[in-house]
Amino acid sequence: MEEALKDNIMGALELVIDPELGVDIVNLGLVYDLELNDAGVLTVTMTLTAMGCPLAGVIVDQVKTAVTDIPEVKETEVNIVWTPHWTKDRMSRYAKIALGVQ
């Protein structure tokens, strides 16, 4: 996937806010990988801040909605993984400041 398209997709995913933390999933470091196949199927590999998150379905739906306006993306699959385990070290400087994390 070309870098400009990847940046465009990541920018769209910044609109997906983790409802518990109030910060987007990109700055939280929850998005691990993006893959777009020749048929236009985008696979977003991501994690959540906590296993058993009751809002996982909401976040998945928001991810799919966030990328619908990107012409290259025809369909979106969200792959929730638990490895590697998410830690606050994956958060951007912005997210750490917003949440008061050192």
Automatic annotation (TrEMBL):
MIP18 family-like domain location: 6-79
Gene3D superfamilies per the UniProt record, alphabetical: Fe-S cluster assembly (FSCA) (3.30.300.130)
InterPro entries linked: Fe-S_Maturation_MIP18, FSCA_dom_sf, MIP18-like
Protein name per UniProt: Metal-sulfur cluster assembly factor
Organism: Niallia taxi
